[in-house]
Amino acid sequence: MGNIVEPRTLSGFMELLPKDQIEFNRLQNIIKQTYEQFGFLPIDTPIIEDSNVLLAKAGGETEKQIYRFEKGDNDLSLRFDLTVPLAKYVAKNYGVLNFPFRRYQIGKVYRAERPQKGRYREFYQCDIDVIGDGELSITNDAEMPSIIYQIFKRLDFGKFTIKINNRKILGGFFESLGLENQITNVLRIVDKIDKVGKDNVEKMLADENVPADKVSKIIEFVSTKENVVGYLENLNISNDNFVKGLEEIKIVSKYMEAFGIPKDYYAIDLSIARGLDYYTGTVYETVLDEHPELGSVCSGGRYENLAEYYTNKKLPGVGISIGLTRLFYVINEYKLIKENKQKSISKVIVVPMIDDLTYPIEVATKLRAKGINTELFFEEKAFKKKLNYANKQEIPYAIIIGEDEVAQKMVTVKDMNTGDQKTCSIDEI
Amino acid sequence: MGNIVEPRTLSGFMELLPKDQIEFNRLQNIIKQTYEQFGFLPIDTPIIEDSNVLLAKAGGETEKQIYRFEKGDNDLSLRFDLTVPLAKYVAKNYGVLNFPFRRYQIGKVYRAERPQKGRYREFYQCDIDVIGDGELSITNDAEMPSIIYQIFKRLDFGKFTIKINNRKILGGFFESLGLENQITNVLRIVDKIDKVGKDNVEKMLADENVPADKVSKIIEFVSTKENVVGYLENLNISNDNFVKGLEEIKIVSKYMEAFGIPKDYYAIDLSIARGLDYYTGTVYETVLDEHPELGSVCSGGRYENLAEYYTNKKLPGVGISIGLTRLFYVINEYKLIKENKQKSISKVIVVPMIDDLTYPIEVATKLRAKGINTELFFEEKAFKKKLNYANKQEIPYAIIIGEDEVAQKMVTVKDMNTGDQKTCSIDEI
Lengths: 429, 429
Hints:
Number of domains of chain A: 3
CATH topology of the largest domain in chain A: BirA Bifunctional Protein, domain 2
Radius of gyration of chain A: 27 Å
Oligomer: homodimer
Helix content of chain A: 25-40%
Largest interface: A-B, 104 and 103 residues
């Protein structure tokens, strides 16, 4: 035998113990089931793509983080998000897809980020998007927050708020101030208001050559949190962008209510912008009220054209994304997982106390046929060691089978939490 | 805007349309649910591993097929199976795992094989293994075929046969002939008997310097299909290997019956061997009776030592693997998928015939709250186009809402298969 190699996992790659994996999968399943409840269709694109295809758009910081390599004559890259593969997929299958095309995809993506706590190089994204052929009703923008609401209600990490804004309102407002070319810089500065204070923000905006009267207007704009629609209407801004954005956010607000999202679970927040070069209408962020420091746990928005690098067809869309790996990391750090979470795959463990395993096998087979996840302990060990195994597995019930049980065709059921025991027939379980 | 890049997917990578993806996921879910029903725990290891760790054992043909590349200072490889990552995982987490450790893993693996029909470079493996700490009861070997049985019953691709053999019987038999060093070559030749005929096999064995009297014994051995245990007992071979193997296959046979596998669904087949350098006891293959040409659709076996490259602990195990991507390809090629398969994610599509979508949204929200997957059609299109969309989605029921329905707080339900319509209240649906 050769040398022993240390069995290590690369840093930046999450690899969980089974108990944590059970919980991770439970959360992922909530997301998947909710996406399906809203009628999204599954797709599963390759993790490896041709670099020319995958990087048709990418550049700068993203490109540096990409795992790119050659194999034979192929220049290959690992996907870094699920949006570019979706664009490729929709352009490729344009002729056979049924539009509006509603798809979900849950899968791993790869970015060689500098390793640090809570940053992963391999992580799950859970995405939905609705893609229109040429056009897409604004009503779709109201359904997205209702999906976020259902998911985070079920995930049960405490009270949360879905923040919505509209990129056209932002654009129109800055246009009315003659600052349309400075939006990105100005918003980046304004975003720091909670950290550095109002005075510093005013100073930084002045350094960007924003006149003092406009600075105060901007700060008022991003700070307005109550009756935002009324505030926007009173601004009396008449450029097309602003008027269109205001109209859109009114429709979205109206239908969000019809979707049954309680009023205290969403808010129009004029300070959120998301990727300004990409989103063109509604934008979303989701914050956990008790942990705003975690940032947005579910984001997305409306874009004008999904696949311009792959097709001349205009394909507007709206979508959201949940970064589940990072989310799982932070909810564990902040201990937001409920104590009563699922701890085992099996409901029952069958523990034979006899040599002939025929009857224990028949019992386990009957339970499994009833749809009960059942583990069967085969090893020849002392009784205490067998129960110790069952305890460590955190399986709620043990079925103990000794000679008496075999003779009477009965089983003894032990509640592993309370220690209570009861002897009964298989059908009575 | 720049040039249009052709949105192509690499050859050797399966990328399905949504309808096929729904079916693929349904099959994967059957496998997953069955694994969980038998109490296997989920793990999810990274797709990228350190090359030194992943390739501790590999060599030869496998190594050529590996996607290996550098990023920064790291020498990285994509996993080519789920067994090596399991070995790493068990060795790494030895101190905290509860043995016997029963895990399932379903995930993509990567091999840069020469592209050809039905061969994939990215494909799903669905694996279970039970790993013992130092020792592992032979009874586990009887549970594996019962899991194969449950899965392929539910997958419903027609009658199948689980073939089992024992590596020790093979070894002991060839040892009794003094041919223990020629097992691999001899079995490879014998395996061709159906293709090239008995005479040619006899000739090829003679070329391998196998004496004529032994050739006939070998051919009798691998051709015995009835009362195999009786035949083996009558051979009166007394070496330890053979005796142990015979004892093991008797226990496995006995308990397979207790697990409820019908007798015509399994057979001892002395001609199957699997990877001779790896398996040491029971081995499994599964063939579809009507399509033996597909080869084994689920294979596995017992091995002595899972993780010898990562630890000095002896970790015997037994496991099986289903290559789902290739399986999905062949069942489609051979049209083994039932016509009544699931065709849509949604049970219902709500089709509004009115401008104000408040009531349709409320109806969809109520259905979703009842756990019914519901799609809501938002776009402003002609009635016919809306129904055309619903038809293409193959959603079984459409709920049509016009002005009358809103006024009466009713809905009209249309069975999309029969065309029948009925107006009723939401709760009546």
